[in-house]
User: What shape does this take?
Amino acid sequence: MRLLVVEDDSAIREFLNRGLTEAGYRVDVAPDGKSALALVDEEVYDGFIVDLGLPDMDGLDVIGRCRALGHTAPVLILSARRSVDERVRGLEQGGDDYMTKPFALAELLARVRNLLRRGAAPQMEAVRLRVADLELDLVRREARRGSDLVQLTTQEFALLEYLVRNAGRVVTRTMILDRVWRMRIDPATNVVDVQIYRLRNKVDAEGKRPLIHTIRGVGYVLKEN
Assistant: This one.
């Protein structure tokens, strides 16, 4: 499960990042609304934790823009605003739950688990991703082209999942290193090119219509044609 934490307080942001990661979640963090919306444009999240008092925009505006873009993942609002009116407003404008600061990590984790359980039923289709005749089973961690099982390593599957989730969108080597390998290193390294080459040999095997395309000087894109 991938979560996005939007929180401007660096100490709270790091505390949440560490606590959620130790609980088994994949976590991205953003210090402001602009950064959060940029991440939402690149990734598909299973849940959001959003502070309302952001430096560049109200957290409710972030939630509203995510909903307008079609993101239905549950949102836990985490805010110092404690009045009943503020809590009601937050829940009416896109939030699924509301916690006030200060908070106990154990309670926050319980609320996150509850929200993800509640949101799982209507989003069961998200356990499978499909582009053309390529299908990923995110539960079994399997990939198929048509009826053929594609044998992938764990890293190759993670890379393919990232490409499929961003189907039709060009992703750079730096984006891949950051999102798949969690590495912020020289983007000139050839690790991405080597892995794409190996992945392409498996996914776009002889006789298959190519899905993984190189955009010279920019990056890669997975698309039907």
Observations:
- The helical segments are 10-22, 33-42, 59-68, 84-92, 105-120, 154-165, 173-181, 191-203.
- Confidence is low (pLDDT under 50) at residues 121-125.
